[in-house]
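Iron-containing alcohol dehydrogenase family protein
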Amino acid sequence: MANQLFSTRTLSTQTSSSLFTLTVAPAKVIRGSDVLEAATAEIARLGSRPLIVAGKHTFTTFQQSLQTILEGQQLHIAQADYGVDCCEASLKSLKKTAKEHKADVIIGIGGGKAMDTAKLVAHQLQLPVVTIPTSAATCAAWTALSNVYSETGAFLYDVALSRCPDLLILDYELIKTAPQSTLVAGIGDAIAKWYEASVSSGHLQQTLIIAAVQQARVLRDILLQKSAAALKAPGSEVWQEVVDATVLLAGVIGGLGGAQCRTVAAHAVHNGLTHIAKHGSIHGEKVAYGILVQLRLEEMIQGNQLAAASRQQLLKFYAEIGLPQKLGDLGLGNITLSELQTAAEIALAPNSDIHRLPFKVALEQLMAAMVSTTAPTDCRDTTSRVLTRGISDEVEE
Ligand SMILES: [Zn+2]
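Predicted structure tokens:
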């Protein structure tokens, strides 16, 4: 096991230690409708001077109710806006605020960026952290990982944290206030687990890896079966099950699978796109598109018929629930060839997870895949056709 860890250590900061450590799950998860008030007693067990980290929008929406609830527990709260993103400038200023307040627990409330910022501040200050997601757009409330972005939203690197959050409070009433598109994005991010974990785990026979990959398959099937019904009935039982799938089960898979169940091309493509897309679309939307790119690569380069069939299945599913199928759906219909190339080059950087694919990917192949995610399956000369015509056709649509 140590050897395998070493062999992948250049790919990510998560494997930078030679010790085999797993950060499987939050110490406690409280889940239900209107549970926030009851759950604050658990927060009080972790500390009495919380610093609340959230985005502006979250503060405007929840400040009143949150403040009342927390002060009811005799907690001395301070709050701070994470600013534009989980970026180094925000982290620095939040650590300063935390020290000034003598914070003894950090509470992250909001979407993925608020979670990532709160977790990383807590990690760096060695304080306990509570995550309270207000959308189901990612599993960031669960995981021991934070993504750091530039101030303009470009993905820079991820940081492996020493543990999962000390407390996760999943209150369906909060999740219900988020726009529907955030759950759609969460479905995209969660379903990627199967397409990426099944590739990155290769033929590993380790018990926990096999278990994680099987959970990813279960997660995919739950999402394929229940997402459409869930989106039609926010707050319903089936909706809660899909929220559990995106916020909780997706986190379980990352926790159980650890370093060998990591992201592959779908997230690498997402990372590349953040350098040209800025804030036009959210994480799970880009990842969902990235899955199609990954399958397209497997199809074009390996001649993988299963990947071809999966892509067609996902295209139908995406159409049904409103996930993006192509660059145009991400607001990138008018990008130039050089922007496309920039995104592809970043996705192919030497330390990128795209290199977990079992074959080499050339720049032109990736660019071709990125503009042909909706292509019909496939006659033999697709690659050359796309290379000579496809880029200009699709990019200018
Ligand atoms: Zn993700």
